[in-house]
Write a structure and sequence with these properties.
The complex is a heterodimer of chains A (92) and B (505). By secondary structure, chain A is an alpha+beta fold. Chain A contains two helices and four strands. Chain A has one domain: 2-Layer Sandwich (Alpha-Beta Plaits), CATH 3.30.70. Chain B has two domains: 299 residues, Aldolase class I (TIM Barrel); 133 residues, Nucleotidyltransferase, domain 5 (2-Layer Sandwich), CATH 3.30.420.130. Helices cover 34% and strands 15% of the residues of chain B. The chains are: A alpha+beta (92), B alpha/beta (505).
């Protein structure tokens, strides 16, 4: 049972000091989770701390590769809206 | 509407009385309206003193990447070279790197008087990095003022630590005092190990901000309040914010326009939330000016900006360039102190001149104070300046213009207009509008533009747009030149019709 940080991480450091197991470490190109140390905060906190502060949707995933913060859940921008605006910008 | 955070019994600040502390009248009058202690604290601070911003430089050390809230006008993507707006940086620094960079800038730019930490996240969400930077600089460059800008969420808990570093100034961004409004600006906060959303999140944030404001004032730390003007969301509400933060003792309120472009990837940008127009911003600032000192010269700097307000010399001080510099820190400190003494003497003599009734530059004011119909209406005049309080920039080189309102009462800085509209990105941003088109649009409402020189093509285009260029006042002090132009216009009969109902701010 461990979480994983994936490529959309922006290296903002917010999660690193919160981890009760010191499982998160700075790495290139982005922060990583030591799977041997991560407990998903079970027993320490109700919510996994890294996922509770992470500002980037999709950057933290569980073992089934499901995003703890799926698209639209943090910004309120729906994936459809995002795609439509990106297409609009590209067409300029 | 309820305002749970507002304590009606909060003591009014000693220096916030009516017009005396406002931006009424000239810049010198504004400074004179502040208490001696506040004036001493802000006299070299470009972000807090309108007068100082012509002479002194600031830099922001980007050591604080983490944030504990989400704002709808922010996204957490860094490093867009085309963007000049808060929250964006190219290079995140460790405290040690930040200290070395600051010392290098302080050696190369003797005008440097202030080191601020403003992000790119929230300084107090990165307490170790922020305070390590302050600690090192308090030791190695004790002449620099240290300040920080925060969203306020954990301010009450960090205030003891903050007070250790002799920080005289703190800026809190307060966009609302009503959780209903806050829920439209902040989608979530991180609080007590949970992500809290919506109205509940805004309620906690507002309470913490107000508590932090009160605690800072109680400790004698100057507080400036920043608010982002978001049309249709908090535009009317900011009058209430201004009234409340003034009552609690904030000494300056800085209302800045929302920056929202779809390209920035923010909620507001993507949802098509528009930014306020220059006249909307000015109208709100004028309305709030009756309540407290309003700041008109903010440039909404990046979190890694370096130099005088309005310029960014960050590219000269990248980590590799700083590493290659050989610096005599003692000589640099002496240069800074000498420059500050010189500027202080110049400003003091300017104030003394302004206070002399016989001074020709002030005669218009001295003669016409009696209540009667105004001599002529007020005029917006744009100015191209590279600093030092002079008209010393070529029209074509100006990346921004200062806008002064000239009237019988004197020249008053009312804002600044950027010519590159936060983006110099060329093709990706191109909609067929030239730089000159954008500049002319940015100067809408101004009737004159003063600069050291100007080319023939822009001259003709500006005149056609009703903005008459004037290169006759190159190297003159800005306020003198602005008033000279106003008097010329008055003498030419161009100011005959006072605008009905216009408030005399």
């Amino acid at each position: 049972m461990a979480l994983e940080i994936v490529e959309s991480c922006v290296n903002c450091w917010a999660c690193e000091p919160l981890c009760p197991n010191q499982a998160i470490y700075e790495a290139k190109p982005h922060f990583m989770v030591d799977a041997n140390k991560c407990t998903e905060c079970a027993g320490d906190f109700a919510d996994a701390q890294c996922a509770a502060i992470c500002p980037v949707e999709g950057a933290i995933v569980n073992e089934r590769h499901e995003a703890l913060n799926p698209p639209g859940s943090l910004t309120g921008i729906s994936p459809a809206r995002w795609a439509a605006v990106q297409a609009e910008i590209a067409a300029r | 509407m309820d305002f749970p955070a507002f304590d009606q019994t909060a003591p009014a600040s000693a220096h916030a009385s009516a017009c005396s502390a406002g931006s009424c009248g000239s810049t010198a009058a504004q400074m004179n309206g502040l208490s001696d202690e506040v004036r001493r604290k802000v006299q070299n601070h470009p972000c807090y003193s309108e007068e100082a911003h012509h002479h002194f430089a600031r830099m922001h050390a980007a050591v604080a990447p983490a944030c504990n809230i989400q704002c709808n006008y922010c996204n957490r993507k860094y490093d867009c070279s085309n963007e000049s707006r808060p929250g964006v940086v190219s290079e995140l620094l460790t405290p040690e790197q930040a200290i070395n960079k600051t010392l290098a800038v302080a050696a190369a730019i003797p005008q440097l008087s202030v080191l601020g930490i403003a992000g790119p996240g929230d300084p107090l969400a990165n307490p170790e990095r922020t305070f390590a930077t302050f600690r090192g600089l308090a030791e190695k460059a004790p002449d620099l003022k240290l300040c920080l800008s925060t969203n306020g969420l954990v301010l009450p808990e960090q205030i003891d630590e903050l007070a250790k570093y002799n920080i005289e100034h703190v800026t809190i961004t307060i966009n609302c005092v009503d959780p209903e409004v806050g829920a439209k600006i902040y989608p979530w906060i991180f609080w007590n190990n949970r992500r809290i959303r919506g109205r509940a999140a805004a309620k906690i944030l507002i309470a913490q901000q107000q508590k932090g404001l009160e605690m800072l004032v109680a400790r004698g730390i100057l507080v400036k309040v920043n608010s982002v003007l978001i049309p249709g969301v908090n535009d009317q509400h900011l009058r209430e914010v201004s009234r409340i933060v003034k009552a609690k003792g904030a000494f300056l309120h800085n209302v800045t326009p929302l920056i929202a472009e779809a390209e920035h990837g923010t909620f507001f940008g993507l949802m098509g939330q528009r930014s306020p127009r220059a006249d909307e911003l000015k109208a709100l600032q004028d309305d709030c000016a009756g309540d407290m000192a309003m700041m008109r010269h903010c440039r909404q700097c990046r979190a890694d900006a370096v130099g005088l307000l309005g310029e960014d010399r960050g590219a000269e001080f990248t980590l590799d360039k700083v590493a290659a510099m050989e610096i005599d820190h003692q000589a640099a400190l002496e240069r800074r102190l000498a420059l500050r003494a010189k500027v202080a003497a110049e400003l003091e003599s300017k104030r003394a001149r302004a206070a002399t009734p016989g001074d020709p530059a002030r005669q218009v004011i001295a003669w016409h104070r009696q209540p009667r119909a105004a001599l002529g209406r007020s005029v917006l005049i744009a100015v191209a300046s590279r600093g030092s309080g002079l008209i010393n920039e070529h029209f074509g080189h100006a990346r921004e213009f200062l806008v002064y309102e000239a009237s019988e009462a004197g020249a008053r800085l009312v804002g600044q207009r950027k010519t590159d509209l936060y983006c110099s990105g060329g093709e990706t941003c191109g909609d067929g509008e030239t730089v000159l088109d954008r500049t002319i649009r940015a100067l809408a409402g101004c009737e004159r533009v003063l600069c050291s020189k100007i080319g023939i093509e822009p001259w003709g285009r500006l005149e056609a747009a009703g903005i008459k260029p004037d290169g006759e006042h190159g190297m003159e002090p800005i306020e003198d030149a602005v008033m000279a132009v106003w008097r010329e216009m008055l003498a030419a009969g161009l100011l005959a019709t006072p605008v009905a109902g216009k408030r005399c701010a």
